[in-house]
Amino acid sequence: MSGKPRLTYLNGRGRMESIRWLLAAAGVEFEEVYLETKEQYDKLIKDGFLLFQQLPVVEIDGMKMVQTRAILSYIAGKYNLYGKDLKERALIDMYVEGISDLMQMILMFPFSPPDAKEKNLESIKERATNRYFPVFEKVLKQHGQDFLVGNKFSWADVQLMEAILAVEEKVPAVLSGFPQLQVFKTKMSNMPTIKKFLQPGSPRKPPPDAHYVETVLKIFKN
C-alpha cells in the first residue's frame, strides 16, 4: 500500500463525497476502490471488512473506518480542521450537522419517484433559502471574518462549500439573496486545494445520473 487513505465505495457521490471533499481540502491524496456489483459488496460483508455491514469505508492510519460522521471527524482532527478548543469544535459540529440535514435531502433526491421530483426540488430550495443559508449568512456577517469558526479554515467551511455547489446545481440562483455567501463561495473556490478539487479530472464526482441510481439500487437491494 502507498500509505494514502483508501476509499471503498461506488463510483459516485453518495455518502463518500463529503469525505473526498474534506481530504482534498486538506491537501491529502487518496486512492479509491469502486464497487460495481452486489457480489463485491456481499464479499466485503462476508470477509468482515465492514463493521456494521455499511459503506463507505476508509482505510487510514491502519484502521478500517466506517460511519461517515466518524470518518469525517477523524480527518478533520488529523488535519487541524476541527477548531482550537472544545467550544470551536462544538460550533463546527453544530454547523456540520445542520448542513448534513440539507445534504441528506440532496442525497436522496435522485431516488425520488418521477411524480415527486418537482415537490422534492421545491423542498430543497425552501430549506436552503429559509432555514440553512440564512444561518451562515448571519454568522459571516456578524463576525466579519472569512471563515465560519475562529477565523480559521475548518471542516464547517468545507461542508458549507460542498452544500452551496450541490444546491446551485439544482437551483442556480439560490445565493442571489445572500451576499456574504457569494463572497464566501468565491474565496473558497480560490483556495488552492479546493480550486484543484474543482478542476476537471479531480476525484470530485459528477451529479448522480440514472446509471449511478441503478447501480446503488442493484448493490444495496435486500
TrEMBL record:
<dbReference type="InterPro" id="IPR003080">
    <property type="entry name" value="GST_alpha"/>
</dbReference>
<dbReference type="GO" id="GO:0004364">
    <property type="term" value="F:glutathione transferase activity"/>
</dbReference>
<dbReference type="GO" id="GO:0006805">
    <property type="term" value="P:xenobiotic metabolic process"/>
</dbReference>
<dbReference type="GO" id="GO:0006749">
    <property type="term" value="P:glutathione metabolic process"/>
</dbReference>
<dbReference type="InterPro" id="IPR004046">
    <property type="entry name" value="GST_C"/>
</dbReference>
<feature type="domain" description="GST C-terminal">
    <location>
        <begin position="85"/>
        <end position="209"/>
    </location>
</feature>
<comment type="similarity">
    <text>Belongs to the GST superfamily. Alpha family.</text>
</comment>
<keyword id="KW-0808">Transferase</keyword>
<dbReference type="Pfam" id="PF14497">
    <property type="entry name" value="GST_C_3"/>
</dbReference>
<dbReference type="InterPro" id="IPR040079">
    <property type="entry name" value="Glutathione_S-Trfase"/>
</dbReference>
<dbReference type="Pfam" id="PF02798">
    <property type="entry name" value="GST_N"/>
</dbReference>
<dbReference type="InterPro" id="IPR036249">
    <property type="entry name" value="Thioredoxin-like_sf"/>
</dbReference>
<dbReference type="InterPro" id="IPR036282">
    <property type="entry name" value="Glutathione-S-Trfase_C_sf"/>
</dbReference>
<dbReference type="InterPro" id="IPR004045">
    <property type="entry name" value="Glutathione_S-Trfase_N"/>
</dbReference>
<dbReference type="InterPro" id="IPR050213">
    <property type="entry name" value="GST_superfamily"/>
</dbReference>
<dbReference type="InterPro" id="IPR010987">
    <property type="entry name" value="Glutathione-S-Trfase_C-like"/>
</dbReference>
<protein>
    <recommendedName>
        <fullName>glutathione transferase</fullName>
        <ecNumber>2.5.1.18</ecNumber>
    </recommendedName>
</protein>
<feature type="domain" description="GST N-terminal">
    <location>
        <begin position="3"/>
        <end position="83"/>
    </location>
</feature>
